[in-house]
# Entry
Amino acid sequence: MKAIIEQSLLKSITYTEYRNRVTTLFAEGKVTGNEQSEALLHYTELNETRMNRLEKTIKISEDIAAKLEYLNRDYIWLLISEGWCGDSAQIVPVIHKMAELSTHIDLRIVFRDENEVLMNLFLTNGTKSVPKLIVLDKNTLEVLGDFGPRPQGAIQLILDYKAQHGVVDEKGKSELHLWYFHDKGLSIQQEIMDLMLSLE
# Structure
C-alpha cells in the first residue's frame, strides 16, 4: 500500500491547483475524469458556483479551530475527488479550510480516475464514491484513518430516500444539497475532528 500512496502523492496537487484545473477544463467544455458528458458538465457548473459560495461562507467553528491548533503529530490529508461530484463540492472546501488552520496538516488532492489503484483501496460498499479523505502519518505514510464520502446525516438522508423512492433522482439530489446547506459544514468538521483526536 505504501508504494501506491507514494505514487499518488507524486501526482497530488494543492487545493488552489485543484480549483484551477476544474475551472480551466470547464472553460474548455470538459470535465475531470474519464467520462465526458453534458450531464457532468452541468454538474461541474453547479459545483463551481457551490464552491465559490462555500469558500466565502463556510466558517470553521471556534471549538474545532482550537482543537486543530493543538494537534501534535504531522499529517498528510490525501483527498480523492472529481470536479463533477456534488458531495465533493460541498465537502472539499470545508476540508481545505480546516487544513489551513493547522501547521500539522498538509492537504494534497488527487483525481479519482487518475488514481484508480488508490481508489480501489478505499471503496465504499464496493463503489468508487468520492470525496474520500485519507489521513496519513506524514513521516511514515501509514494510513491512520479515512472519512467520506459523506457525513453520517447525509448518508442517512440518502438511505431513507432510496428506501422510499427506490432511486436517488434529481429531487433526491436537491434534498441532499439542501441538507448540506442547512448543516453549514458542521457535521463534516465534527466527524473529521473526532477522527483526528482519536489519532492523537
In short: The radius of gyration is 16 Å. The beta strands are 75-81, 105-111, 132-137, 143-147. The chain has one domain: 2-199.
